Amino acid sequence: MTNIDDTQPQNATEAAVLGYFLNMKRKDFEAFEALWHEDAVQVPIFRPEGMDHFVSRMEGREQLMTHYRAALANRSGHDFWIDALHATQDPEVFVVECRGRSVVGETGHLYENSYVFVFTLREGKIAHLKEYADPQPIIRAFTGAFD
């Protein structure tokens, strides 16, 4: 397990993928936005039931950035640890196993989760992202945040 700050990309694909976590942690939205293809799609696979604030699909860089700016506005202590990086036979598909932690400002609760992300790049930018995470920690940390 390596903290995102200490993870060194081995190529341009890894740089784009690791940039997702690093720029989110730093809340560097200009650099974060530059990682995404204009028509990018993100799909959080295990959306918490009954929590409509957590969308099941985001389409287009503009919608993604609106979501991330709002989602991270009141978060603090946001950090990531990379457990494993997996190149695939397709040079544009990359899988990351990681863990994240932050404090949800709206509730004051600690949010910790393990993730598997499947990134698909196009022209060196994130074109499609599937996010697999346990919905139970999301429910515990965010319940009441958006009521």
Please describe what this structure looks like.
This protein is an alpha+beta fold and 147 residues long. It contains four helices and seven strands; from the N terminus they run E-H-H-E-E-H-E-E-E-E-H. The chain has helices at residues 12-26, 29-34, 61-72, 135-142; strands spanning 2-3, 36-44, 58-59, 75-87, 93-104, 110-122, 125-133. A hairpin with a 5-residue loop joins strand 4 (75-87) and strand 5 (93-104). The N and C termini lie far apart (36 Å). The model has no long low-confidence stretch (mean pLDDT 92).
Structural class: alpha+beta
Shape: globular
CATH topology: Nuclear Transport Factor 2, Chain: A
**Total of domains:** 1
**CATH-derived architecture:** Roll
Biggest beta sheet summary = 7 strands, mixed
**N- to C-terminal distance:** 36 Å
Number of strands: 7
Topology:
Layout: E1 2-3, H1 12-26, H2 29-34, E2 36-44, E3 58-59, H3 61-72, E4 75-87, E5 93-104, E6 110-122, E7 125-133, H4 135-142
Parallel strand pairs: 2-7
Antiparallel strand pairs: 1-4, 2-3, 4-5, 5-6, 6-7
